[in-house]
C-alpha cells in the first residue's frame, strides 16, 4: 500500500477535528485518491456530543477487535467487547441473531456499560446487519445510547444498514 497513513487513522483524525471544530468540513482521501467526505454522517452525529470522553467504543468479536481498540485509543475513550456466546466471564446479557448463512448469539458483560453512556459500535464487515443489530440491542439493554456504527466494509446488496435505521452506519469501503 502506497499510503503514508492508514485510511482508518485518517478517518478517526477527521472525526476528532470535526468534533472539536463543529463547522469545519475536512476533506478526506479514499483509496483512489479522490477527495471526498465519506464519514460526514458520523461528523454530524458527533457534533451533537460535546464530551466524547464519556463515550465508549464497543467492538464485535472477532475482527471488530482489530479496529475497535485502535479507534478507542485515537478517540481517548474506553473499549468494551461483544463476544460470541460462552467467551465472557461473569454475568452476561445475550442476544440471538441470524447471519446470511448461520445463527449465532452475542454476549456482553452485564455491567460493561452505564446508563446514558454514548457508544460507537465497530466491526469489520456489514453484511445482513444481523450482527450489528444484535450489538445495538445489547447496548440498549444497558440503557446506553448508540451514536453510530462503523464498519470497514459494507456489502450494499444485503441492505444491512436498513436494520440499524435510524442509526447511521458509516463504512469506509462499499461493495
Ligand atoms: O452483517 P452480518 O450478516 O451479521 O455479518 C457480519 C458479521 O459476519 C462476520 O463475522 P462472523 O459472524 O462470520 O464471525 P467471525 O468474526 O468469527 O468470522 C463479520 O466479522 C461480522 O461480524
Ligand atoms: N454474507 C456475507 N458475505 C461475506 N462475508 C460474510 N461474513 C459474514 N456474512 C457474510
Give an overview of the whole structure:
This protein has 175 residues and is of the alpha/beta class. The protein has a single domain, classed as Rossmann fold (3-Layer(aba) Sandwich). The chain contains four helices and nine strands; from the N terminus they run H-E-E-H-E-H-E-E-E-E-H-E-E. It has helices at residues 7-20, 40-47, 64-75, 130-141, and strands at residues 28-29, 35-36, 56-60, 78-84, 92-98, 103-109, 118-126, 145-154, 169-174. The strands form two sheets. The chain has a seven-stranded mixed sheet with strand order 5-6-4-3-7-8-9, with helices on both faces. Strands 1-2 form a two-stranded antiparallel sheet. The longest helix is centred in the N-terminal third of the chain and has 14 residues, at 7-20. It starts with 6 loop residues before the first helix and ends with a strand. The structure holds 1-O-pyrophosphono-5-O-phosphono-alpha-D-ribofuranose (PRP) and adenine (ADE). The site of adenine (ADE) has 5 residues, from loops.
Quick structural gist:
This protein has 175 residues and is of the alpha/beta class. The chain contains four helices and nine strands, in the order αββαβαββββαββ. The chain has a single domain (49-174), classed as Rossmann fold (3-Layer(aba) Sandwich), CATH 3.40.50.2020.
Amino acid at each position: 500500500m502506497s499510503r503514508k497513513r492508514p485510511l482508518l487513522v485518517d478517518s478517526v483524525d477527521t472525526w476528532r477535528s470535526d468534533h472539536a471544530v463543529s463547522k469545519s468540513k475536512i476533506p478526506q482521501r479514499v483509496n483512489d485518491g479522490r477527495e471526498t467526505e465519506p464519514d460526514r454522517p458520523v461528523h454530524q452525529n458527533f457534533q451533537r456530543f460535546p464530551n466524547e470522553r464519556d463515550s465508549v467504543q464497543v467492538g464485535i468479536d472477532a475482527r471488530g477487535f482489530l479496529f475497535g481498540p485502535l479507534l478507542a485509543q485515537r478517540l481517548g475513550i474506553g473499549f468494551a467487547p461483544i463476544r460470541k456466546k460462552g467467551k465472557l466471564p461473569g454475568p452476561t446479557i445475550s442476544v440471538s441473531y441470524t447471519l446470511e448463512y448461520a445463527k449465532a448469539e452475542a454476549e456482553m458483560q452485564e455491567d460493561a456499560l452505564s446508563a446514558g453512556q454514548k457508544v460507537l459500535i465497530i466491526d469489520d464487515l456489514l453484511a445482513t446487519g444481523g450482527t450489528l443489530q444484535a450489538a445495538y440491542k445489547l447496548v440498549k439493554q444497558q440503557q446506553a445510547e448508540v451514536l453510530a456504527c462503523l464498519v470497514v466494509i459494507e456489502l450494499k446488496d444485503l441492505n444491512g444498514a436498513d436494520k440499524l435505521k435510524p442509526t447511521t452506519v458509516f463504512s469506509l469501503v462499499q461493495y
